[in-house]
Amino acid sequence: MNGQYVYLSGVEFAVWFKKQGSKVFNARCKNVVFKYPNGTSKLHPTEKNHKLLRELILDNTNEGDMVFDPCMGSGSHLLVAAENGRNGKGVELNEHYFGIAKERLSPYTCSNIGSIIDRIRRIKDEQQSTGNAQTC
């Protein structure tokens, strides 16, 4: 359907947040338009090109800094961050994609992630059983 009645967009916007007072910017006089092909692994329908993610992460963080992805999908941002010496945290509501991210990030994560997942599931089950579940 997309592209059937309208032009396909060749542009995707990115939003980047930094801590207040952060002065990390490892790129000087750089264009704000990045041209990269789509991601190729397609573990997630909107997966980004890893070379693009690497460029953005290296431009805006230093080794050891934290990268947070609130919609991590299959974990591409956090994978690229880990491969480049950055720490990462992410959130994903879809259990299928969370499982993919967990597998991809397993060489870089601590061993207690399973207990965190179990805790989240218990909280979710408790909310559903008491009727306190919040939906968007």
Structural features:
4 helices; 136 residues; 2 strands; mainly alpha
Shape: globular
What's the pLDDT, averaged over the residues?
82
Span between termini: 25 Å
The counted number of beta strands is: 2
User: What is the name of the CATH superfamily of the domain at 50-130?
Assistant: Vaccinia Virus protein VP39
How are strands sequenced across the largest beta sheet?
Answer: 1-2
Just give the CATH class of the domain at 50-130. Answer: Alpha Beta
Helical content stands at 25-40%
Q: What are the segments in which pLDDT stays under 50 over at least 5 consecutive residues?
A: none
CATH fold annotation of the domain at 50-130: Rossmann fold
State which percent range the strand residues make up.
Answer: 5-15%
- Major sheet summary line: 2 strands, parallel
Number of helices: 4
CATH architectural designation of the domain at 50-130: 3-Layer(aba) Sandwich
Helix/strand structural class: mainly alpha
Order of SSEs = HEHEHH
Radius of gyration: 18 Å
Summed up:
The protein has 136 residues and is mainly alpha-helical. It is 35% helix and 6% strand.
Describe the structure in your own words.
It is a single chain. The protein has a domain at 50-130: Vaccinia Virus protein VP39 (Rossmann fold, 3-Layer(aba) Sandwich). The chain is mostly helical and 136 residues long. The mean pLDDT is 82. The protein is built from 4 helices and 2 strands. Helix 1 crosses helix 2. It has helices spanning 50-60, 76-83, 95-105, 113-130, and strands at residues 66-69, 87-90. Helices cover 35% and strands 6% of the residues. The protein is globular. The chain has a two-stranded parallel ribbon.
